[in-house]
Design a protein that fits this description.
Layout (H helix, E strand, L loop, with lengths): L7 H14 L7 H4 L14 H5 L3 H4 L11 E5 L5 E6 L10 E6 L5 E3 L3 H4 L4 H16 L4 H11 L9 E8 L8 E9 L5 E7 L2 E11 L2 E8 L4 E10 L2 E10 L1 E10 L14 E2 L41 E4 L5 E6 L2 E6 L2 H5 L9 E2 L24 H4 L15 H4 L12 E2 L9 E4 L8 E5 L5 E6 L2 E6 L5 E3 L9 E7 L5 E9 L2 H4 L1 E7 L6 E7 L9 E9 L9 E9 L6 E2 L3 E2 L5 E8 L4 E11 L8 H8 L10 H5 L4 E13 L13 E2 L6 E5 L6 E6 L4 E4 L7 E6 L5 E6 L8 E6 L5 E3 L6 E7 L5 E8 L2 E9 L5 E2 L1 E2 L3 H6 L5 E6 L5 E7 L10 E6 L18 H14 L2 E6 L8 H4 L8 H17 L2 E11 L1 H12 L6 E5 L10 H8 L24 E7 L7 H13 L6 E6 L12 H16 L29
Parallel strand pairs: 50-51, 50-52, 52-53, 53-54, 54-55
Antiparallel strand pairs: 1-2, 2-3, 3-4, 5-6, 5-12, 6-7, 7-8, 8-9, 9-10, 10-11, 11-12, 13-47, 14-15, 15-16, 16-19, 17-18, 20-21, 21-22, 22-23, 24-25, 25-28, 26-27, 28-29, 30-32, 31-32, 32-33, 33-34, 35-36, 36-37, 37-38, 39-40, 40-41, 41-42, 43-44, 44-45, 45-46, 48-49, 49-51
Helix pairs in contact: 17-18
């Protein structure tokens, strides 16, 4: 076999190898690969076991879902859209700021813990903690640099999968012929795998890529084989050589990728913002997989020292004029400015590694101490806090040109690879105070900003050290709570309050705590419907700022009213574009009157018939308050401030949440006003001309409209609407002159938290539909949806793949009721299966239960589990009383709470029996909070319909619930009287015939535990002890979460339902077999009490 001149040592090795070659057919790859670097990819599990739906899968200790993006907003020119986000691995921490460039399609992460550590001590603690853990895990800056190269397509191509071809050799123990190489990812970004030559299988390890060439070790100690694989990539093929040093042989290889059937879809990993620049630039931004659970109890004990938490960014606001924004972090204000030249510098692959600095880049010293109210300069030269890595990236030269030879005898610098840092803007801190800054707003011309601190309204101009307090001294103990500066910056409107609050008139309610050796009583404040309403007032002020610096500003209180109830509504007014007037809505709960009001500035010289806009044009030439003219100081004001007047009034007879949605906004002419109301029966847009008190409805139809953005020119309104399907929400552009609606989103599902460019050509929104979890998406007009994030682990995708079936039916009044259902795979119309209905039934503003893509535990996961595991038909129903279906639905509760819902649920159950293979003797329902009340209401008032009910944390006595909800949703109540006691469930409990499980958390401060205890007493007094069970969480709140975890709650549900109604089965195939055979004891109707 070998050349006779081969040395004896090699001959011996060769004989040993050739003998073993004959036995290799019996060896398997796992045995051969024991000496190679193990692959991190876990072995596939049994498909059936992997796909099986269990309570442990759907209700793990922590949510399977990652955080979603929020607060999307476009820059003034529409080029950039910023948003707040944190990846799945960072879900324990706060959000960071990202900016998406619509022109290039790039997204950059602007803030990180490392960057904010230059300003914040808490962030430095986080960075130090992360660095230590990253180093302990063996992660280096070089790893982050390699990761970055691969993420952005800068890394050399890495082979994967199976490649087939031929091996040629001039002689040796391995025969030439067919050759196969399988590549897999290895540890530390290496490549591992296997090379097969005939029956011989040799492991590959420690594979690395450099300039298009893969070099890997070939070594098997058992066979005494050593060598190296060296192959090049070119035109989609591999070519190179396998050079063995023991035994000595060289094989030339040529391979092509093997044609394989497409693999099953593999859910993506939660990588965060797709292709984002600026991720993991330093070890202080490395978050390990166990970070979310690092502070959890271990063996019942908390860690001695808790890992620190990064607070992140709380909010931001774009400048109205340029590419900059104000950021709130830790209660302080920061300024971020973008240099477009620096931003637009092409991001290119870095050249040669740079010498390691004396101090690692991610070890940023803290800034110098600042005085509490010191305003830091926004110029990089002055404040010294702009990071060096935020300067424009230098032009990248080819490595061959940048690698200079060191001088003779000079010591070569230590080379350190680290990630390339893209330009991320210039960040500077503007405030550092013990108090929290709030309601931060740019001045309309972008020259500075205003904010509230401790009730004072302060104004700062960039480049000036002056801090001007704009709010005037108010009388009678009034306090400013909100404000808005006019577009011309010369006027101010603000909202002020005085008097008592509900806390002053609230009573103390006792909650019992059983956590210690002996029970303790805790007191919580609670304002009840029969408690006296506090004497409080809300006022609107107009303030002319032209004489403010000389203490000659003109202030007028233009409207004041005493609050009549917890549902009274009045917000900060909106300015007209010409700064001449303001508009606001005032809702009075006691009378149900909605007032659209105006107040403004009128020229003194004008008559009552003059148009205010004529006076406005003269006032717009008045001196700015920043630099008052001397002549102006001696002039008396040539205007007067008029009190607010009612320009339109109507009675609100819709849902309790609609008054808070009435926000008047001006059209470009500064006269006409658009607002939302339910006068048509649905929340629609209306146009008011105050001159004639004439109202025109702009949008029409049986659907809801929810505005979220008015274009800067006041001509276009962007809104989410349920047009065509109440269970979907799409983004629309509405022309205010005509009411024309243009849909901007595509497909089916729900779009939320949307931001739209003013011309409607680009939008970002969170999107979800059944079949996958929610993600941030981008849509450019005419293009397909572009995913922006991957926020969830594979399990979230696997568990949301199943889509429920949507349905509608008519109730006894001819109204359409919506819902969705799950049916078993072997379901037939002839079946007689148990039915489980989930209901909430109360108003939720814009939300409802049957919304597409709503993965709530009771309406989706548990419903699907009961269907797949036990063969039940399960459904979620939105009866009257729910929000989003018009005024008739949302207001249905008022003074008849639970009755309309009961009718619709009973009608729905009978519809299922008639049409969907359901046994009328096996009907069950459950609900939580309002749904817990509703479940009991049905079980007590329609006792012959449902055999089983589960009621969680239901308010059974509405006169003991908080006044805001009860008086707005349930009915009117006079102070000192318990008018709502007539809606108590206690007198009805004696009618129970089915089986009922009551569930509650003892420490619930929302719906008091006593509500369940008191109805339980009534059931016991009515001899219903065999029909009712009580399941409590001794340390749980309104959503439990104490000793009873989510999985424990649903284990109890499952046991209760199966114990009383059994599993669902398909109908017998024989057509003559009776479907309602009573051989099975679970078919017996529920027992009645004696």
């Amino acid at each position: 076999m070998f050349n006779r001149e081969t040395p004896r040592r090699r001959l011996s090795a060769g004989k040993h190898f050739s003998v073993l070659v004959m036995c290799l057919a019996a060896l398997t790859w796992p045995q051969q690969s024991t000496h190679a670097t193990p692959s991190p990819v876990p072995a596939a599990k049994n498909d059936k076991k992997t796909d099986e739906l269990t309570l442990e899968r759907i209700f793990p200790d922590r949510s399977i879902f990652g955080p979603s993006a929020r607060d999307m907003a476009f820059s003034r020119d529409g080029r950039f859209c910023a948003f707040l986000y944190r990846a799945y691995s960072e879900r324990r921490h706060g959000n960071d700021l990202y900016i998406h460039d619509t022109q290039t399609g790039q997204t950059r992460r602007i803030t990180t813990a490392t960057r904010m550590s230059a300003f914040q001590a808490d962030a430095r603690k986080v960075v130090e903690d992360r660095e230590a853990k990253a180093k302990k895990a063996g992660i280096t800056l070089a790893d982050l640099a390699a990761e970055q190269l691969e993420r952005h397509g800068w890394a050399d191509k890495r082979p994967s999968g199976t490649w087939e071809g031929q091996a040629a050799s001039e002689g040796g123990p391995l025969a030439a012929g067919p050759c196969t190489i399988e590549f897999k990812p290895g540890a530390k970004r290496t490549i591992v795998g296997e090379i097969r030559l005939g029956l011989v299988r040799l492991p590959l390890s420690a594979g690395e890529i450099s300039q298009g060439r893969l070099t890997a070790k070939v070594e098997d100690a058992a066979l005494d084989v050593k060598g190296e694989l060296s192959i090049d990539f070119k035109d989609g093929s591999l070519s190179g050589a396998l050079r063995l040093s023991s035994p000595e042989q060289t094989l030339n290889l040529t391979l092509s990728p093997k044609s394989e059937p497409p693999a099953d879809d593999v859910p993506p990993s939660p990588t965060g913002v797709l292709d984002a620049w600026g991720e993991r630039l330093a070890l202080g931004d490395v978050v390990l997989d166990d970070d979310a659970t690092i502070n959890d109890e271990r063996d019942g004990r908390r860690p001695r020292e808790l890992a620190p938490r990064y607070a992140g960014i709380q909010s931001f606001e774009w400048s109205p004029t340029g590419h900059e924004m104000l950021i709130i972090s830790g209660g302080d204000i920061y300024r971020l400015t973008l240099d477009l030249d620096a931003w637009d510098t092409p991001l290119a692959r870095p050249g040669a590694p740079t010498p390691a600095p004396d101090q690692p880049e991610d070890d940023v010293p803290p800034p110098e101490a600042q005085d509490a109210d010191q305003q830091e300069s926004t110029d990089a030269e002055d404040n010294g806090e702009t990071r060096a890595d935020d300067q424009p990236p230098p032009a990248v030269e080819p490595a061959a040109e940048t690698d200079a030879k060191p001088a003779a005898k000079a010591k070569s610098p230590k080379v350190q690879e680290k990630p390339f840092v893209p330009y991320r803007g210039r960040l500077s801190r503007l405030t550092r105070t013990r108090e929290t800054e709030s309601d931060v707003q740019y001045l309309p011309d972008g020259s500075g900003y205003t904010y509230l601190r401790g009730g004072a309204l302060l104004r700062v101009r960039f480049g000036s050290h002056d801090i001007v307090q704009l709010d005037p001294e108010l009388r009678d103990g009034e306090r400013m709570v909100g404000y808005r500066i006019s577009p011309d910056q010369k006027r101010l409107v603000f909202l002020a309050t005085r008097g008592e609050t509900t806390a002053n008139r609230a009573r103390q309610v006792t909650i019992v705590n059983y956590r210690d050796r002996f029970a303790r009583a805790q007191q919580v404040a609670r304002h009840m419907p029969d408690d006296p309403w506090p004497e409080s007032y809300t006022s609107i002020y107009l303030f002319d700022l032209s004489g403010h610096l000389t203490e000659r500003g003109t202030l007028e209180r233009v409207f004041t009213r005493r609050e009549t109830g917890p549902r009274d509504v009045m917000f900060v007014p909106e300015w007209s574009p010409d700064s001449s007037r303001v508009a606001f809505a005032a809702y009075e709960q006691a009378s149900d009157q909605m007032l659209i009001m105006e107040a403004g500035f009128v020229d003194k010289a004008s008559t009552d018939g003059d148009k205010p806009e004529q006076a406005a044009s003269r006032r717009n030439n008045a001196p700015d308050l920043a630099e008052p003219e001397d002549d102006a100081l001696d002039d008396k004001a040539d205007f007067k401030i008029e009190n607010a007047r009612v320009v339109y009034r109507f009675l609100h007879h819709g849902g309790p949440n609609t008054p808070r949605m009435v926000r008047p906004m001006y059209l470009p002419d500064s006269r006409r006003i658009a607002f939302i109301s339910e006068m048509s029966g649905f929340r629609h847009l209306h146009l008011l001309d105050p001159r004639y008190e004439h109202v025109t409805q702009l949008t029409h139809g049986p659907y809801e409209v929810y505005p979220f953005h008015l274009s800067r020119d006041h001509s276009t309104l962007f809104a989410v609407a349920t047009k065509d399907d109440p269970n979907q929400e799409h983004v629309f552009r509405i022309t205010l002159e005509t009411g024309e609606m243009t849909r901007l989103t595509t497909g089916e599902g729900v779009y939320s938290s949307a931001a739209v460019r003013d011309d409607g050509s680009y939008l970002l929104a969170n999107y979800v539909d059944f079949g996958g979890p929610v993600e941030l998406i981008a849509i450019r007009t005419g293009d397909e949806i572009r995913p922006m994030t991957r926020s969830h682990p594979a399990e979230a995708h696997a568990l949301t793949a199943v889509r429920p079936e949507y349905f509608t039916y008519e109730n006894r009044h001819g109204q359409t009721i919506h819902g969705h259902m799950f049916k078993p795979s072997d379901w037939t119309p002839q079946d007689r299966r148990p039915l489980l209905i989930y209901v909430y039934g109360g108003p939720l503003g814009e939300r409802k239960m049957a919304t597409r893509g709503s993965y709530a535990a009771p309406s989706y996961f548990f419903a699907r589990y009961m269907t797949e595991k036990h063969g039940w038909v399960t459904a979620t129903i939105d009866p009257r009383g729910a929000s989003g279906y018009g005024a008739v639905f949302e207001k249905a509760n008022f003074e008849q709470v639970g009755k309309p819902q009961t009718e619709d649920l009973v009608d729905g159950a009978r519809w299922f029996v008639k049409n969907h293979g359901v046994d009328e003797r096996k009907l069950a329902m459950h609900g939580w909070s309002f749904g817990g009340f509703q479940t009991q209401m049905v079980m007590y008032t329609e006792p012959d319909v449902f055999a089983v009910g589960i009621a969680g944390a239901g308010p059974t006595e509405w006169h003991n619930y908080n006044s805001w909800y009860s008086t707005g949703t349930i009915g009117a109540n006079q102070p000192g009287k318990t008018d709502l006691e007539k809606y108590s469930l206690l007198p009805l409990a004696k009618n129970l015939k089915g089986k009922l499980l009551l569930v509650h958390g003892v420490e619930d401060s929302n719906v008091l535990y006593q509500d369940t205890v008191r109805v339980y007493r009534e059931l016991l007094k009515a001899n219903k002890e065999v029909l009712v069970e009580l399941f409590i969480d001794p340390t749980g709140g309104h959503g439990l979460g104490g000793d009873v975890k989510t999985i424990g709650r649903y284990r109890k549900y499952e046991d209760f339902l199966i114990r009383h109604l059994g599993a669902g089965t398909a109908a017998e195939p024989a057509p003559d077999d009776p479907a309602d055979s009573s051989d099975d004891p679970t078919e017996e109707p529920p027992a009645e009490s004696p």
